[in-house]
Amino acid sequence: MKPFKELVIIGSDINDAGKFDQKKRDAHLNASEAMTCIRKQWYQKNGAEQTPQDWGYARRGTHGEKFLVESLIAANVPLEYTGRDQLSLQDEKRKISSTPDGVIKYDDVWVVPEFKTIDPRTNKGNLPKTAHVAQLEIAMELIDQQIDRPDGVEIKGVLIYMDASNYHDIAEFPVPRNKAILDQMAKRAAKILRTKDVANLDREGKRNGGKECQTMCSFKGVCGVNEEKVVDRTRANRGSNMDAGAIRYMELKDMEDGIKVEKAAIAEDIKNGLVQRNTNKVMVGNIEVSLAVAKGRASLDKKLVAAAGIDLSPFETIGAPSERLTVKRA
């Protein structure tokens, strides 16, 4: 007789077979993976060679979710779209998909829960995790987009973390809607799905410390994150002004990128607030907020000009040369 561990893994693989439509998942950016390393997602969708990975944590999450769903239903919570009725939602324009854990339908609000199990050693002060928030934000917007609901009924989200060693140790975090999330993720989806050469994608897992590479990725072999990259260039010494400057530059760039995303999301919320108030100007303390339609900028289609036989080169001017600094992660 084979060892019980081996038999359990074989059986769980059989039970998991066919649960997901892999072709459909490969054609979209999936909400549950949206914030994982972009290379990892590319390799998954392009059938790259995998190294063995322990799926025990994922299966723990499945059973934890089942416990929470069954408990809520037994408590007469109006939870729908679970189990065999669970929905798989796709935005074909933006190539984004989500499988929400369900929808709790009250008369005045629909609550979208996202269930997670956590290791008992988890520092709860670091919750909720950014990736889980984004996953739930995507689910809420796809529900809003594709499921009809009565007028006046709001959609709200809640992240629920259950301690895997004590099913009654539960923490919950409200998550407001981010109506810009689908447009924000559309760029990432396009990058993953349209890129032909993985070398054009950042090793995000390694850049973010490498934990994802070592514990949550089955493509680290083909990705080569453990190999020292040999390049023909001069290296700055560790601790030098150049080293410190480059590190700080990248820290500021990452902060800047995060601020841009947050600023865009808040801008959408403000616009929606003006629309709901049926106004294009409002005062908030000593801050004036206004919304106006700007005229489109005129541009010259050089291809059409050339096709018309018009040569504009005599009118072109060349500006003074300028310096261009490029600082990026290898």
Care to describe what's here?
The protein has 330 residues and is α+β, with helices and mostly antiparallel strands. It is 40% helix and 15% strand. The protein has a five-stranded mixed β-sheet. It has a three-stranded mixed β-sheet with strand order 1-4-3. Strands 9-10 form a two-stranded antiparallel sheet. β7 and β8 (166-175) form a beta hairpin. It is globular, with a radius of gyration of 25 Å.
Descriptive key words:
single chain, 330 residues, alpha+beta, five-stranded mixed sheet, three-stranded mixed sheet, 10 strands, 15% strand, globular
Quaternary assembly:
single chain
Sketch the topology as an H/E string, one letter per element: HHEHHEEEEEHEEHHHHHEEH
- Tell me the radius of gyration: 25 Å
Termini gap: 50 Å
Structural class: alpha+beta
Beta-strand portion reads: 15-25%
Number of strands: 10
- Low-confidence sequence ranges: 227-232
Cα shape: globular
Q: Considering DSSP H and I runs of 4 or more, what fraction of the residues is helical? A: 25-40%
Q: Give the integer mean of the pLDDT values.
A: 83
Give me the side-by-side strand order of the main sheet: 2-5-6-7-8
Short structural description:
The chain has 330 residues and is an alpha+beta fold. The chain has helices at residues 4-16, 22-26, 38-45, 56-74, 130-146, 181-194, 204-207, 211-215, 220-223, 241-276, 302-307, and strands at residues 29-30, 79-80, 89-91, 96-98, 103-105, 109-118, 154-163, 166-175, 281-284, 287-290. The chain is globular, with a radius of gyration of 25 Å.
